[in-house]
Amino acid sequence: MSTSAEGLQCKMNTLYNWCSTNFMILNAVKSVIIIFGNKPSRRPQLKFGTETLLLVEEQLYVGIHFQSCQGATLRMHYDHKASKAQHVGCVICGLESLVGKLGVHNAIKLYMALIDPHLTHGCEIVLDTNSTALKGLEKVQIAFLRRILLLGSRCIIVILFTETGLIPIKYRRLLLAIKFLKYVVDCPATHLTHIALREAVSLAASGHKSWISDLVSIISSLPFHVRIPPLNELTTDPDQIDYLRDQILLGLNRKLQLEIDTSDKLYLLQNRLTPGKPP
Predict the structure, then answer these.
(1) How many Å apart are CA 149 and CA 166, to the nearest integer?
(2) Do residues 69 and 75 touch, judged by C-beta distance below 8 A?
(3) pTM over 0.90
(4) Residues 6+ away with beta carbon under 8 Å from 125
């Protein structure tokens, strides 16, 4: 990566020379160039040795779909995963014509095994700063849960989660990102992901956007209060990360319960008793 064509070409030359010295061959056919942000007035010609690389508008890289559109770099990834998850959901529902009724319990197992991986793919690094893109994933999750619970398109959404025990995809993706943060913090200081985290913290401290600043921004925008530890604690102390995660889960549970308690349509679910639990 580079902020200029000249800088990128210099890095490519260094990589090409290193490969030549170490008896390795770079495959220019499988390498492409993508420009994020404003396009230069002059189309750059970048090469590995004598091979000119193709300049593309979109590209799949380590499972993530990127596109060069400013402000929508990862929108294609969201759309692609929503489409995949929707297709898998239709296949699962179609199984009932072959094996009979799946039942809610079995359908949830299939959801977690086959649909959830698509809805959460890349959520550790692709944080949900674009609420419009996230809506596509939410729509797929809600549609599938309505289908397995045999509820119509106008049913109240909160019961989809209180009656299945599943977490809304917005919060599930956030919790997985926080779990990834704990993994990075626990990595040795020489680990590349740990070094990248320190760079992200440095950028955030300087007032620039970074992965950690986006994570803090998403948590701050939640519809309930969450005490966010200072960056120096959040990115060094695993206990603080666990505390942050527990706060979000507690806030989510309270939010769902409040929606039930304040709905005049869900009076049968209000103050209900659960077998084995005190009133």
Answers:
(1) 13
(2) yes
(3) no
(4) 64, 180, 211
pLDDT surpassing 60 at residue 279: no
d(CA 23, CA 115): 43
Kindly report, residue by residue over 7-31, the tens digit of the pLDDT.
888 998 898 889 989 988 888 888 8
Distance between CA 270 and CA 257 in Å, rounded? 9
d(CA 50, CA 126): 35
Residue 59 near residue 66 (C-beta atoms within 8 A): yes
